[in-house]
Structure prediction request, 188 residues.
Amino acid sequence: MALKSTIFKLDLNVADLDRQFYADFPLTLARHPSETDERMMLRVLAFALHASETLEFGRGISTDDEPDLWQKDLTGSIETWIELGTPDPDRLRKACSRSRRVILYAYGDRAAPVWWQKHGPGLARFRHLEVWQIPDSSARALAAMARSGLALQCTLSGGEVWLTGAGEAVTVQPQLLKESDQVSSTTR
Prediction:
């Protein structure tokens, strides 16, 4: 018998001081049986970093041709493709051919640097790919907050992210590994 996804509902309040963007998002996430709380909360972090009315969760971990998050324009063309982890470079190549902007949030203090050292030079050719690393300490702290019904406040400013909820607070400072050639007024 196949295991079913676990549904998590949370209310996310985003105050992005860099973009002057403020909004509330009632989120429903399906956590695949093989997905950890850490990875699920990193999806929430990625959503907060790029929050907009058109950003959606993809089927990600359970589907090869969809990202963890994506944003499409009114024609259905993919504007932003967001991945988590250390994917196969072919997956990123395909994402770059399908989307105007591709963002990867790598995590794992041991795995991510090894993956980046091996694949970073080959990924340099993708002009609209940006790669960030999330420290393990931040990912673990986010995982400790994971619970359905969570009310999460997220404040972004100057490349730092402050998340508070359920009496806990986490500060995340993603490290840029590869910058996109696209000109942007913010770090995200």
Observations:
- DSSP finds four helices and eleven strands in the chain.
